[in-house]
Structures are given as structure tokens and as C-alpha cells.
Amino acid sequence: MLKIYNTLTKKKERFEPIEPGKVKIYVCGPTVYDASHIGHARSVVVFDVIARYLSATGYEVVYVRNFTDIDDKIINRANELDIDTKELSERYIQEFYEDMGALKVRQATHEPKATDYIAQIIDLIRLLLEKGHAYEAGADVFYAVESFNDYGKLSGRRLEDMQAGARVAVDENKRNPFDFVLWKGAKPGEPMWNSPWGKGRPGWHIECSAMSAFFLGHHLDIHGGGKDLIFPHHENEIAQSEGAFGERFVNVWVHNGFVKIDQEKMSKSLGNFLMIKDILKQYHPEAVRLFLLSNHYRSPIDFTEQAMIEAETGLEKIYAFLERITQSAGPDTEGRNQQEQGELWEHFCETMDDDFNTARAMGLVFDTLRQLNRIMDEGTDATNGKKRARLESVRADLKRVGLVLGIGTEAPSYFFEQKKAKTLEREAIDKALVERLITERVQARQQKNWAWADQIRGELAAMNIVLEDRPEGTVWKAK
RNA sequence: GGCGGCAUAGCCAAGUGGUAAGGCAGCGGUCUGCAAAACCGUUAUACACCGGUUCAAAUCCGGUUGCCGCCUCCA
Fold this sequence. Notes:
- The chain is α/β, with parallel strands linked by helices.
- It has helices at residues 38-56, 72-81, 85-102, 118-130, 159-164, 206-216, 230-245, 276-282, 285-293, 305-329, 343-353, 358-377, 385-405, 412-427, 431-446, 450-462; strands at residues 3-6, 11-14, 22-27, 60-65, 134-137, 140-143, 180-185, 200-202, 220-226, 250-256, 259-261, 264-265, 301-303, 465-470, 473-478.
- The chain folds into three domains: 3-265, HUPs (Rossmann fold, 3-Layer(aba) Sandwich); 309-410, Up-down Bundle (Four Helix Bundle (Hemerythrin (Met), subunit A)), CATH 1.20.120.640; 413-478, no CATH class.
- It has 16 helices and 15 strands.
- The strands form five sheets. It has a four-stranded parallel beta sheet, with helices on both faces. A four-stranded antiparallel beta sheet has the order 5-6-7-8, with helices on one face. A three-stranded mixed beta sheet has the order 12-11-13.
- The two termini are 42 Å apart.
């Protein structure tokens, strides 16, 4: 039984899909005016795992993640660079796909751009005007927050409270300071579209209401995004969608916590934004996922070098295990994965059913690794009979779990080869040299010339190359 | 000022009433020529502090302290 924490009710609730067997999810995607940072990665990875898990447990998932490709920040940035907004947004959409692809994020069912849905946006604004939730003021159209009784229900705010300490830009055209713009009248040099209210462009909040309605209808199962979007963005979406359509907009609101960098919030002023593409130069994409999924999605998470090194260490442990089990139980073939779902998968589902507890899921994975390593340590009879069946069954489950989390999905040999290649490049070492030194050391060991052997091992260690003398021979690994 | 969150071992972290998952680091051991890897053992009489409810609380309630987020563009 799946339970999800709902921001609206501040409780974990049993999840009941609107249509049996089907889940409709909308997640707010990025405003594409700059490269994606680790905070974007968290949100996208968290909802990627949620969508994968729902699919894996039998739901038909319709997942929509938008791109905001028109807004003040985009216009400003485009002006700075002296290019048009389309060129700018397309560039960063492209980068977004590169970054998220590298992080092994699956594509959503639909990934619409706001500027492709101007007609739907205009229709929605027209409906809000008809229903008395919006008004024209000068060249702009505003949403009248006082016309919507439930305004503030998601963020737990009341208009009166907010007005007391209002830090909102005063706009003479607004009836209430919290009224927000649905349609902005055109300004010179800005992109514009025709509308019943003259040339202009949509406000930020309206696009999500319009696109979610277009792809998913008026009533969604899950709507997600970063915690910061609760107010005003999601509050405003509720006002728009429920105001326009007169029915409940979203059943479950899901919000992920922030990523901090060395205890500090990422911000423009601190200049500490960590971009995904830079992080990936240093760390394996699955290590980034492992790091992100090692905490509960609603908690803040602190990005530090130490945390990333630990994630890399953990990832290597997983691949070392996968490599070992391949030797012990034979190669991982298609047929073997058809096995029935076992205990590990069952426990994984229990854990994920509890508000997507990926941190505990990682604990399960490491626990399983230890148990199976012990079986393999016990001896060669692990290669036959009951033990082998157990190994194969758990491996199949581990693979299923890995496919939900997006961790441990590469062939172990590939993983280690990539790692070696990266280290060799970084340390500017010739692979042939490493292999020659190892051959030399094997000879030294055969002659029981331990001093020589140890000296060679020391030299390689200085190059970040670690040797393992296994019964079947010496292998090397890169740090 | 308004709203909300967090405080668990050296570090990270799960755990919302029944007696502390998991990871990293450390220490001892098995294995090894020695290592590495893996495994075994060990590491919080204890969950910020005070008080309360209960047979029973890290978990619920009240208070205190500290940290953080949102209220302005932000994942």
C-alpha cells in the first residue's frame, strides 16, 4: 500500500489513483536561461525514481515535465548575450537533455515548452476572466486572489497575514498586492504573441495550469516540484486551475528539499551554484544519483566532497559485488532475470511504499550485498545447488531495484574499464606501463622476491592504482 | 512580523509508541608472503535540553535552546 506525504494536508496519505492502474503526474521543470545545477538534478532524479517505481509496480504512468521557455529571466539573459530568447532557451534545453541524459534520467511522457501552448494559455485566461477570477488592467491581465476563497490552502498562508509584512512590489494596477499577472502587455524588444488583450506574453504561473490541463485533464494524481515552488507558484496554479475548471486540481502535492553546498544555500550572491556538467567531470553519474537518493527526498541535503567520495565508494562496492557474482553465479543473462520476484524486491517495495524512502532502500541494498558476499566467501560450493539459486534470485531482484534507482545498471566490466580509463588519463599514465609493472611483479612474487613486489605495488599505488592478488591472478583497480 | 522544517554515534543517515537499519571512518580478527577486496566482531544504556502522557517514547503533548527554509527569481 503506497503512502505519500501530501504538502496540502501535511500528512502521509494512502495513494488512490483517480483512474485505477493509472497515475497522472505533472512536475515543474526548469526555466531554461542557464545551465542546470545540482538542485535541478535532485528534483529531476527524485521524480524520475518516483515515476520509475510507479511503472515498476504496475501503474501506467503519464508523466509531464515542462520547460519554461519564456519569462523575465530568459529575456534579460538573452538581451545580455544579444541573442533572441528562442535561441537561448533552445540552447539550455539542449544542455538540460545532455545533463539529465548523463544522469540516466528517463524522458517524461510529455516535455512541453510553454511557448508551444500559447493558444491554450489564452483560452485559460479567457475562462478565468469569464468566471470573474481575473481582470484587465492596462495592457495586463491579473488574477484576483480575493476571488478565490481557498487561496493560501497549500502554503498555509492567509492573505491578511501576508499583507501585514508584504514585500511585494507595489503595482498601481493591482487590486490586491498578491494578484499576479496572467498576461503581460508587450514591451519593446520582447517576444510577443497576439491575444484578445493585445500583443503580449504569458505570466509564469499560467503555463503550468494550461499545459497540465492539456495533457492530463483537470484533475491530476500527483503534482511535484522543489519546495520553493509551494509559494507562490503552486498556490497560484491551484487558484488558476480550480478557479477556471471548478474542480479539484491535484490529489497529492509532492515537494523535494533543497541541495546545500557545504552547509550554504546555493545562491547567485554567494556564487556557489554547482552545475551538473561540472560535477560529472569529477564523479560518476550513478554516484551522483546514489548521493541524492541516500537522503529522504523531503530533507535538505548537503553536497560536500566527503559525501561524494562516500557515494563513489558505495558505488564501487556495488559494482565489485556485481563483478564477483558474475564470476560466482555465471553471467547475467536475460533468462535469469525472468525469475520470480524475491524477498529483496518485496522489502524494497515496502520501503518505497512508505513515501519513497530511498535512503532505507539503499540500506537494503548494502545489507543484501553483505549477505551474499558472505555466501560467496563460504566457498566454492556456492557455485552450485541452493546457494547458486539464491545468488541468482537475489541478483535478479538487485537488478530490478537498480533499474528503479538508476544505480548499478552498467556492466561491471564496463564500469571498471571506464574508471581505469579515467584515472589513466588524469594521471597521464600509459596502460601498457601498468600492465608491464604488474607482469614484473608477478614474476617477482613467483621468485618470492617480496621486497621487489612490494616496491612495484608501492609505485602503482602512487599512481592511484590498487592491486588485488586474487586466487585466479592479480587484477588492478583505479582510485 | 507570518508560515514551515530540522536537532539520532567521529561523520552521513533511516527509524512516528515496544526497546536504536545502512554507509563512511576507526579498532580487533579471518583470509593473504604482506597487502587489497570480502567477511566476522566491536563502536550511541542511548536519540539537543527540561517537563508531561503511557505498562512502554528517539517516536505523542507542552516548554527551552540551537540551526535552517519559504514569504522576492529560484529545483
